[in-house]
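Handoff note, outgoing to incoming analyst
You'll be picking up this chain. Sequence as last confirmed:
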Amino acid sequence: MNLDQVRGWYPLPVIPCQTATANPGLASPQPAKVMHPRNWVPQTNYKITLACSSLLALLAFSAGCSLCKDEAITEARSPDNLRTAAVFYRNCGATTSEYGHVVVRPTSKTSSEVEHTVFTARYEHAIGIAWKSPSELVVTCRTCRSEQIMFQVSKVGALKISYELMGDDIQ
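Most recent structure output, in case you need it:
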């Protein structure tokens, strides 16, 4: 098979060599253009390649391909059994610090309510949760310093959240 007939491939450009002749007035013969298969590269439509790569990356991340790992520490149901509060520690590998967070979600899977993150603190701390009433949650963290608190919500819908954070008082 002639290599020129291979579909989808094209040769790299070849720069012909100039040969020296004894008589500069005569035209020098050009050497034959020899193409080796190693010098052939595939034709690529870069827009299609970029689109396919982006799609594969999107699918990998949407399929839960994440470096972060959540570890459930504790959870507590509200007195009316409508909501559940849970404490998680998240670790995303060596390049980021771990952190703890408190999530409030409906106890029932059929509820139209969604999960809400109400508290996040950098690094692992002894985070506690307790329900004062069906509509009031208390989050405690005796070692959390104010500069380590990344996110804190005081109200989600009818749910009121109070905090007992004493890390700044520790000397």
